[in-house]
Amino acid sequence: MSVASDGLGERGTIRAAEAEHFGRLAADWWNPRGTSAMLHKLNPPRLRHIRARVDAHWNGDPHSFTPLGGKRVLDVGCGAGLLAEPLARLGATVTGIDAAPEVIAAARIHAEAAGLAIDYRAGGIETLAGERFDLVLSLEVIEHVADQPAFVRGLARALAEGGLLILSTPNRTPLSRMAMITVAEGSSVIPRGTHDWERFLTPDQLTRLIEASGLEVRDLTGLAFSLAHGFELSASTELDYFLTAARPAPALAATSPS
Within a 10 A sphere around the Cβ of 254, how many other Cβ atoms? Predict the structure, then answer.
């Protein structure tokens, strides 16, 4: 499990080398056939899963066009806004943070051109200074941070009472190593150097971090890939997975018989 002292120029939970790597990809982020093509392909199942978890948590109307109306949403590791923009269109007031200033600049330009008011900020989870959000998202990010336990604690601190936290990350399995590093990076489908398999977390490891932060896991859903269907939600967590968590309901106080 990653710690903050691996000598790569960390600032809090940020690994400088990771921020620089993704910063170099900023200009191509919104190109669906460019270096971020895989993220574009991930977005549809991501949004389906988020919508399902949101509707289940807040007893939402599955036919509503604005299921996040009135909700504050935080997208941690937002990149240039591939997820933040559709969340804003679903009615949310969105804040997006990312360690790479270059991708934040690209995100602001794209949102302005789309007529979307999204609060984009360059920095890590530790920069939020006590702000709270109804929905906190961090998708394919925790494997890139310097201090994974501190990162999860920061996500938990940012979660409002009654809120929902959704993370996704690759599982640390032989399949993920082969698919994401040997094949995808080896063929430049994903830019080389994007992943370090030793930083991947198993569902059990991430669950322990979540529980140590005072939250409880509410759902675990896999993300699979097939040549026939592309990325799709799955019962298998061997490649990648979503973990949904919330704060436990307070225990009812014991009452004495009258």
Answer: 5
Delimit the domains of the chain by residue range: 10-246
Write down the residue that tokens 């949102």 correspond to: 111
Nearest-CA neighbor of 133 among 113, 108, 112, 154? 154
For residue 179, how many other CB atoms are within 10 A of its CB? 18
CA separation for the pair 111, 109 (Å, rounded): 6
Q: Over 80: is that where the pLDDT of 254 sits?
A: no
Q: What are phi and psi of 88, to 5 degrees?
A: -65, -40
Cβ distance 65 to 89 under 8 Å?
no
Distance of CA 58 to the CA centre of its chain: 20
The verdict on pTM exceeding 0.70 is yes
Largest CA distance in the chain: 73
Q: Tokens representing 148?
A: 């994974």
pLDDT digits (tens, 9 = 90+) for 76-103: 999 999 999 999 999 999 999 999 999 9
> CB atoms < 10 A from the CB of 55, how many?
15
Is domain 10-246 in CATH 3.40.50.150, yes or no?
Answer: yes
DSSP-assigned letter for residue 252: P
Q: What is the dihedral of CA 139, 142, 145, 148, to 10 degrees?
A: 150
